[in-house]
Design goal:
With about 220 residues, this protein is of the alpha+beta class. It has 2 domains: about 45 residues, no CATH class; about 170 residues, Sandwich (Jelly Rolls). It has 2 helices and 11 strands. Strand 7 and strand 8 form a beta hairpin. This is PEP-CTERM protein-sorting domain-containing protein. Keywords: Membrane, Signal, Transmembrane, Transmembrane helix.
């Protein structure tokens, strides 16, 4: 029994040393810093911005419906081009982007009225806005439970072979139909690669199981 206890104490120490999920690189992930109202076109570097042009819908920050905090993004769709965007600016080095596995998530709410939809895009980029694919998808009214916050999440590898890519972009675009959506708590972070600590933890789990089987 004492040997088994020591084994699990050692295992807990190894697990404590294992790397956690990387920090969220999206500045103002909950739309708390952005001033309430129509999103301006502010360039997108570590701020939420929007190009709306002749867009007849609405892309704004509001204080009524939110998952957490005091504010959330409101998207009222229409059949014209517009885009909401942010990027990590100069916060990341190329070595922190290329080849890394990234995890993303955000939460969406709708009342279920209408036929609206929009796209999300996470892109690998650089100072010249030369974008490469990361992850994307489409959010539709029919794909969400009305009046309920739904988490959208996934993982992808930022690997396009360009060692100069040093930015991550998060966009909402592709608006169509007529519906209102709310978005909150946007997250984008790196997923640690399995290292020596992870392999050691797996070995210790296996050894503990072996000891239990052979002590019976």
């Amino acid at each position: 029994m004492k040997k088994t206890i020591r084994c699990f104490l050692g295992l807990s120490g190894v697990l404590a040393m294992m790397p956690a999920m990387g920090a969220n690189v999206i500045v103002d992930s909950g739309f708390e810093v952005t001033t309430a109202g129509i999103l301006p076109d502010s360039g997108g570097s570590n701020v939420w911005s929007a190009f709306q042009g002749g867009f007849s819908g609405s892309l704004a920050v509001q204080e009524t419906i939110k998952l957490s905090g005091a504010q959330a993004l409101e998207i009222t769709t229409a059949n014209e081009f517009a885009i909401i965007y942010t990027n990590t600016g100069l916060n990341l080095a190329a070595s922190e982007v290329e080849g890394m596995t990234w995890s993303y998530s955000f939460w969406v709410y709708t009342d279920g009225v209408g036929d609206g939809q929009f796209d999300y895009q996470i892109l690998v980029s650089n100072e010249l806005n030369q974008d490469a694919g990361g992850a994307s998808g489409t959010i539709t009214v029919g794909g969400l439970t009305p009046n309920t916050w739904t988490e959208i999440s996934g993982d992808f590898v930022a690997a396009d072979g360009d060692p100069d890519k040093n930015r991550m972009k998060f966009n909402f675009t592709g608006f169509s139909g007529s519906s209102t959506f709310y978005v909150d708590d946007v997250s984008l972070s790196t997923v640690p690669e399995p290292g020596a600590a992870g392999m050691l933890a797996a070995a210790l789990f296996g050894w503990a199981g072996f000891r239990r089987r052979h002590r019976r």
